[in-house]
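Quick illustration, no need to memorize.
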Amino acid sequence: MPKKHEKPEVEPRVGIFWLYGRRLITDSTPLSKAEPYGDALTHATGHIDFRSMLQRRRTIPADVEYDEPPRGRVGYDKRHATFFLFADSCIIANPAAPKAIIGTFHLPKNITPQKDAHYRCATLRGSS
């Protein structure tokens, strides 16, 4: 039985995110409801579809492309029983951003964000 002042354990989540200006925008699923994708558990909605919904709601401007703001994904590797966090390098370079993502998704604190070819900062796209 939890002690009176202990916080109840919150289930970790998998999903997608953007750093839009200084605002973290997320869409996620509790791990227990995540969808299998090979050896991973993941969130069903992708950045493109979620961006369209955000534009319809006017959360972000209509002319913002899905890959313009820095973005990334949190998933779960079933083989190694670990979470992964893939993100644009400009998110990883900002120490506060990964901390906010880890907190928002209720992930273990020891996760190391990783770069991924899918997630490249808009300012870096033309340079490679």
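Residues 124-128 have pLDDT under 50 and may be disordered.
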